Amino acid sequence: MTYCVAMRLCDGLVFASDSRTNAGVDHIATFKKLHVFQREGERVLVIQSAGNLATTQSIITLLASRIESQQTPNLMQAETMYDAATLVGETVREVIHRDSKAQQNGSNTNFGCNMLLGGQIGNEEHRLFHIYQEGNFIESTNDTPYFQIGESKYGKPIIDRVLTPDTPLEQAMCCALISIDSTLRSNLSVGMPLDVMIYRRDSFHAREQQRIIESDPYFIAIRKAWSEGLLNTFRQLTPFPTQP
Protein backbone atom coordinates (compact mmCIF):
# COMPACT_ATOMS: atom_id res chain seq x y z
CA MET A 1 0.00 0.00 0.00
CA THR A 2 1.02 3.62 -0.29
CA TYR A 3 -0.32 7.11 0.18
CA CYS A 4 0.01 10.00 -2.26
CA VAL A 5 -1.74 13.36 -2.21
CA ALA A 6 -1.71 16.15 -4.78
CA MET A 7 -3.33 19.58 -4.47
CA ARG A 8 -4.28 22.10 -7.14
CA LEU A 9 -4.33 25.61 -5.73
CA CYS A 10 -4.55 29.11 -7.17
CA ASP A 11 -0.80 29.62 -6.76
CA GLY A 12 0.32 26.23 -8.04
CA LEU A 13 0.51 22.56 -7.14
CA VAL A 14 1.60 20.57 -4.10
CA PHE A 15 2.66 16.91 -4.17
CA ALA A 16 3.54 14.52 -1.33
CA SER A 17 4.13 10.76 -1.42
CA ASP A 18 5.38 8.11 0.95
CA SER A 19 7.86 5.53 -0.32
CA ARG A 20 6.89 2.20 1.23
CA THR A 21 5.84 -0.86 -0.70
CA ASN A 22 5.03 -4.22 0.75
CA ALA A 23 3.84 -7.64 -0.29
CA GLY A 24 3.45 -9.03 3.20
CA VAL A 25 5.39 -8.49 6.41
CA ASP A 26 8.54 -10.07 4.99
CA HIS A 27 8.66 -8.01 1.80
CA ILE A 28 8.84 -4.32 2.70
CA ALA A 29 10.92 -1.98 0.57
CA THR A 30 11.38 1.67 -0.38
CA PHE A 31 10.60 2.95 -3.87
CA LYS A 32 10.13 6.49 -5.13
CA LYS A 33 6.54 7.19 -6.17
CA LEU A 34 6.89 10.80 -7.30
CA HIS A 35 8.30 11.23 -10.81
CA VAL A 36 9.02 14.45 -12.70
CA PHE A 37 9.18 14.99 -16.46
CA GLN A 38 10.18 18.49 -17.49
CA ARG A 39 11.48 20.75 -20.16
CA GLU A 40 12.50 23.78 -18.15
CA GLY A 41 10.83 26.98 -19.27
CA GLU A 42 8.13 25.10 -21.19
CA ARG A 43 6.53 22.28 -19.18
CA VAL A 44 6.60 20.40 -15.90
CA LEU A 45 4.70 17.14 -15.44
CA VAL A 46 4.57 15.30 -12.12
CA ILE A 47 3.28 11.73 -11.79
CA GLN A 48 2.52 9.95 -8.51
CA SER A 49 1.75 6.25 -8.47
CA ALA A 50 0.01 3.71 -6.25
CA GLY A 51 -0.84 0.08 -6.83
CA ASN A 52 1.04 -2.86 -8.32
CA LEU A 53 4.72 -1.86 -8.26
CA ALA A 54 5.65 -3.81 -11.39
CA THR A 55 2.82 -2.09 -13.27
CA THR A 56 3.70 1.42 -12.13
CA GLN A 57 7.42 0.96 -12.77
CA SER A 58 6.69 -0.30 -16.29
CA ILE A 59 4.45 2.69 -16.98
CA ILE A 60 7.04 5.22 -15.79
CA THR A 61 9.80 3.42 -17.73
CA LEU A 62 7.76 3.40 -20.94
CA LEU A 63 6.89 7.08 -20.61
CA ALA A 64 10.55 7.99 -20.02
CA SER A 65 11.96 5.76 -22.76
CA ARG A 66 9.53 7.12 -25.33
CA ILE A 67 10.68 10.64 -24.53
CA GLU A 68 14.32 9.59 -24.85
CA SER A 69 13.76 7.81 -28.17
CA GLN A 70 11.49 10.64 -29.39
CA GLN A 71 8.77 8.12 -30.11
CA THR A 72 5.46 9.67 -31.10
CA PRO A 73 3.44 10.41 -29.05
CA ASN A 74 5.31 11.19 -25.83
CA LEU A 75 4.88 13.52 -22.88
CA MET A 76 7.20 16.16 -24.32
CA GLN A 77 4.99 16.38 -27.41
CA ALA A 78 1.65 16.72 -25.59
CA GLU A 79 0.13 20.11 -26.40
CA THR A 80 -2.10 20.26 -23.30
CA MET A 81 -2.31 18.63 -19.89
CA TYR A 82 -5.45 16.85 -21.11
CA ASP A 83 -3.39 15.31 -23.92
CA ALA A 84 -0.75 14.27 -21.37
CA ALA A 85 -3.41 12.65 -19.16
CA THR A 86 -4.78 10.80 -22.18
CA LEU A 87 -1.30 9.51 -23.02
CA VAL A 88 -0.65 8.34 -19.46
CA GLY A 89 -4.06 6.63 -19.42
CA GLU A 90 -3.29 4.83 -22.67
CA THR A 91 0.05 3.67 -21.25
CA VAL A 92 -1.70 2.39 -18.11
CA ARG A 93 -4.09 0.34 -20.25
CA GLU A 94 -1.23 -0.92 -22.42
CA VAL A 95 0.83 -2.22 -19.50
CA ILE A 96 -2.08 -3.77 -17.60
CA HIS A 97 -3.37 -5.48 -20.75
CA ARG A 98 0.10 -6.82 -21.58
CA ASP A 99 0.82 -8.18 -18.11
CA SER A 100 -2.64 -9.58 -17.39
CA LYS A 101 -2.71 -11.29 -20.79
CA ALA A 102 0.56 -13.03 -19.96
CA GLN A 103 -0.78 -14.26 -16.61
CA GLN A 104 -0.64 -18.03 -16.38
CA ASN A 105 -1.49 -20.94 -14.08
CA GLY A 106 -4.70 -19.41 -12.83
CA SER A 107 -2.95 -16.66 -10.89
CA ASN A 108 -5.22 -13.91 -9.63
CA THR A 109 -2.57 -11.18 -9.44
CA ASN A 110 -4.00 -7.67 -9.33
CA PHE A 111 -2.11 -5.58 -11.89
CA GLY A 112 -4.14 -2.46 -11.16
CA CYS A 113 -2.83 0.98 -10.28
CA ASN A 114 -3.88 4.59 -9.86
CA MET A 115 -1.91 7.65 -10.85
CA LEU A 116 -2.01 11.37 -10.22
CA LEU A 117 -0.77 13.69 -12.96
CA GLY A 118 -0.26 17.38 -12.33
CA GLY A 119 1.64 20.13 -14.05
CA GLN A 120 1.59 22.90 -16.61
CA ILE A 121 2.29 23.12 -20.33
CA GLY A 122 2.92 26.38 -22.16
CA ASN A 123 0.26 29.06 -21.81
CA GLU A 124 -2.26 26.67 -20.31
CA GLU A 125 -3.28 26.83 -16.63
CA HIS A 126 -1.75 24.31 -14.24
CA ARG A 127 -4.00 21.25 -13.95
CA LEU A 128 -4.36 18.05 -11.92
CA PHE A 129 -5.79 14.66 -12.96
CA HIS A 130 -6.57 11.34 -11.26
CA ILE A 131 -5.99 8.49 -13.72
CA TYR A 132 -7.64 5.14 -13.00
CA GLN A 133 -6.45 1.65 -13.89
CA GLU A 134 -8.93 1.55 -16.78
CA GLY A 135 -7.07 4.51 -18.31
CA ASN A 136 -9.87 7.02 -17.89
CA PHE A 137 -9.48 10.03 -15.62
CA ILE A 138 -11.09 12.94 -13.82
CA GLU A 139 -9.79 16.49 -13.31
CA SER A 140 -9.49 18.52 -10.13
CA THR A 141 -11.78 21.55 -9.80
CA ASN A 142 -12.23 24.37 -7.30
CA ASP A 143 -14.83 22.20 -5.56
CA THR A 144 -12.36 19.31 -5.38
CA PRO A 145 -8.89 20.90 -5.15
CA TYR A 146 -7.04 17.70 -4.22
CA PHE A 147 -6.76 14.00 -5.01
CA GLN A 148 -5.49 11.07 -2.95
CA ILE A 149 -4.46 7.58 -4.01
CA GLY A 150 -3.55 4.58 -1.91
CA GLU A 151 -4.40 4.48 1.79
CA SER A 152 -6.33 7.73 1.81
CA LYS A 153 -8.93 7.49 4.59
CA TYR A 154 -6.73 8.41 7.57
CA GLY A 155 -5.32 11.57 5.98
CA LYS A 156 -8.53 12.87 4.42
CA PRO A 157 -10.21 14.66 7.39
CA ILE A 158 -7.47 17.25 7.92
CA ILE A 159 -7.44 18.16 4.23
CA ASP A 160 -11.22 18.48 4.09
CA ARG A 161 -11.20 20.81 7.10
CA VAL A 162 -8.49 23.26 6.07
CA LEU A 163 -7.79 23.18 2.32
CA THR A 164 -9.33 25.66 -0.12
CA PRO A 165 -8.13 26.75 -3.58
CA ASP A 166 -6.79 29.95 -1.98
CA THR A 167 -4.62 28.16 0.57
CA PRO A 168 -0.97 29.32 0.20
CA LEU A 169 1.37 26.65 -1.15
CA GLU A 170 3.51 26.46 2.00
CA GLN A 171 0.45 25.98 4.22
CA ALA A 172 -0.91 23.39 1.81
CA MET A 173 2.36 21.44 2.05
CA CYS A 174 2.09 21.56 5.84
CA CYS A 175 -1.45 20.17 5.50
CA ALA A 176 -0.22 17.41 3.18
CA LEU A 177 2.51 16.40 5.63
CA ILE A 178 0.10 16.28 8.56
CA SER A 179 -2.23 14.20 6.40
CA ILE A 180 0.59 11.74 5.73
CA ASP A 181 1.62 11.71 9.40
CA SER A 182 -1.95 10.80 10.38
CA THR A 183 -1.74 7.91 7.93
CA LEU A 184 1.68 6.82 9.21
CA ARG A 185 0.28 6.57 12.73
CA SER A 186 -2.67 4.39 11.68
CA ASN A 187 -1.30 2.16 8.91
CA LEU A 188 2.01 0.32 8.85
CA SER A 189 1.84 -0.10 5.07
CA VAL A 190 2.66 3.60 4.64
CA GLY A 191 6.19 4.65 5.57
CA MET A 192 9.06 7.10 5.41
CA PRO A 193 10.89 8.69 3.71
CA LEU A 194 8.53 11.14 1.98
CA ASP A 195 9.03 12.74 -1.42
CA VAL A 196 7.49 16.19 -1.74
CA MET A 197 7.37 18.98 -4.29
CA ILE A 198 5.90 22.46 -4.66
CA TYR A 199 5.24 23.71 -8.19
CA ARG A 200 4.63 27.47 -8.44
CA ARG A 201 2.28 28.54 -11.21
CA ASP A 202 4.06 29.66 -14.40
CA SER A 203 7.52 28.83 -12.99
CA PHE A 204 8.11 25.90 -15.39
CA HIS A 205 10.76 24.31 -13.19
CA ALA A 206 10.81 21.51 -10.64
CA ARG A 207 13.48 22.80 -8.29
CA GLU A 208 11.37 22.71 -5.13
CA GLN A 209 11.67 18.96 -4.59
CA GLN A 210 12.99 17.30 -1.48
CA ARG A 211 13.05 14.02 0.43
CA ILE A 212 11.92 14.15 4.05
CA ILE A 213 13.44 11.57 6.39
CA GLU A 214 12.47 10.59 9.95
CA SER A 215 14.97 13.03 11.48
CA ASP A 216 13.81 16.06 9.46
CA PRO A 217 13.43 18.87 12.04
CA TYR A 218 10.46 20.54 10.35
CA PHE A 219 8.52 17.28 10.07
CA ILE A 220 9.27 16.41 13.68
CA ALA A 221 8.11 19.86 14.81
CA ILE A 222 4.77 19.89 12.97
CA ARG A 223 3.83 16.30 13.88
CA LYS A 224 4.54 17.10 17.54
CA ALA A 225 2.64 20.40 17.42
CA TRP A 226 -0.33 18.77 15.70
CA SER A 227 -0.53 15.90 18.19
CA GLU A 228 -0.24 18.21 21.20
CA GLY A 229 -2.72 20.67 19.71
CA LEU A 230 -5.31 17.95 19.15
CA LEU A 231 -4.85 16.62 22.67
CA ASN A 232 -5.14 20.07 24.24
CA THR A 233 -8.28 20.86 22.24
CA PHE A 234 -9.82 17.53 23.21
CA ARG A 235 -9.18 18.20 26.90
CA GLN A 236 -10.99 21.54 26.61
CA LEU A 237 -14.17 20.03 25.17
CA THR A 238 -17.23 19.89 27.40
CA PRO A 239 -17.59 16.38 28.81
CA PHE A 240 -20.60 14.34 27.74
CA PRO A 241 -23.53 15.15 30.05
CA THR A 242 -24.70 12.30 32.23
CA GLN A 243 -28.26 11.72 33.36
CA PRO A 244 -29.04 13.01 36.87
Automatic annotation (TrEMBL):
Pfam families: Proteasome. Keywords: Hydrolase, Protease, Proteasome. GO terms for biological process: proteolysis involved in protein catabolic process. SUPFAM superfamilies: N-terminal nucleophile aminohydrolases (Ntn hydrolases) (SSF56235). One of its GO terms (cellular component) is proteasome core complex. Gene3D superfamilies: Glutamine Phosphoribosylpyrophosphate, subunit 1, domain 1. The keyword Hydrolase applies. GO terms for molecular function: peptidase activity. The keyword Protease applies. This is Putative proteasome-type protease.
